[in-house]
């Protein structure tokens, strides 16, 4: 486990680096050898003394204790697409944030952007760890005083989940159990859980409400539903405040252009529609493959509900503010409006100003015709409404970031 925290941890490491950079004696000059050793020892002792007298040396890390008026949120998966945007919003709203991520899919570059925006001690720390490592997770919880957890970390591609189901059950279901056990053991009382409309499967009736029966049809959706069930069972006999947010299709990026979506190139084949459109618009891919034109929808292509990431993270903050002990809130997070793949591609062409070659192919097995949400519960109970509902604008924002970050975060 590596800890790239700001504040105390970083101050110490900076100092120890300067110790490491000290001049060591030249072995050829034997006459002064002993003297130099003594000098080095003296300097080392002096440095240790200075370090010990430094106010930050003995004082505990600001992350390790509760502070009046400060809410400390553990953001798992905070180096990823949605988690990094949520961290930005939390920091802007004066929350203290610890990101835990194993960087398997996220970007250290996103964490760096956040650290540069919020460099003050006690605002943001990054801990490199795998949530499958229960011992490491326990250590993190024992060394940090969290008030709440936003659990984003997950592998999250439907197609990949059908190829590697065990990976999905392990990473999503089993790791959620690890996080929940650590929360229970360390008395952390609020959980905001990232779930998905994939837990509903292929409902007959649209729009999808929170009482639409859940019948997931792929390992991704099933693993998320199992994780939800574990959380719900645990919450029955605990005083934990739980919010489960079932997102629809997430698009867009920070309107101020600081963060974006940068999946690893090797995951491109499993990627989402916005990434595929941008790849086609920028010439990385020769075109876009649209699978299925004979669905029972207005133009024959699949219909989905696209939610902008800025609205999504707003829903998280509202959920965090309204979470109450012993209560569970389950909410769909979508716009309530279905848009067809053809509409999406049209918006993408306008947003990028590029021609996009589209190949229309037969249906892909397992795809469903229409999925869109009824968001009235979250509007009513959390006073949340989607504001970024213009597809073209959301895609324009995301495209601007893509254009200024060729190669993702690694080339900045
Ligand atoms: N993007 C969408 O359209 C969408 C839709 C519905 C739900 N969700 C959910 O939202 C959450 C975030 O998704 P995203 O799109 O930001 O994905 P992402 O891949 O960009 O981010 C996930 C992050 O979790 C980290 N992670 C994965 N496994 C980990 C582990 N074992 N230990 C520590 N860190 C780990 C990754 O490194 C990555 O930084 C996921 O739970 C996903 O299921 C996403």
List the helices and strands and how they pair.
Layout: E1 2-3, H1 8-20, H2 33-53, H3 55-58, E2 72-76, H4 81-92, E3 96-101, H5 108-117, E4 124-128, H6 134-143, E5 148-151, H7 158-163, H8 165-186, E6 190-196, H9 219-236, E7 241-247, E8 249-251, H10 273-281, E9 288-291, E10 303-304, E11 306-308, H11 309-322, E12 328-333, E13 339-340, H12 341-352, E14 358-361, H13 376-382, H14 391-404
InterPro entries: NAD(P)-bd_dom (IPR016040), NAD(P)-bd_dom_sf (IPR036291), UDP_G4E (IPR005886)
GO molecular function, one term: UDP-glucose 4-epimerase activity
Keywords: Carbohydrate metabolism, Isomerase, NAD
What CATH first level of the largest domain would be assigned? Alpha Beta
CATH topology of the largest domain, anyone? Rossmann fold
Low-pLDDT windows of residues:
5-29
Domain count = 2
What is the β-strand count? 14
Strand and helix order? EHHHEHEHEHEHHEHEEHEEEHEEHEHH
Gyration radius, rounded: 24 Å
Task: Give me the CATH architecture of the largest domain, please.
Answer: 3-Layer(aba) Sandwich
Question: What are the distinct ligands in this entry?
Answer: nicotinamide-adenine-dinucleotide
Average of pLDDT? 89
- The outline comes out as globular
% residues in beta strands: 5-15%
Distance between the termini: 26 Å
Work out the helicity level. 40-55%
Region (Disordered): 1-23
InterPro entries: NAD(P)-bd_dom, NAD(P)-bd_dom_sf, UDP_G4E
Organism: Quercus lobata
Family: Belongs to the NAD(P)-dependent epimerase/dehydratase family.
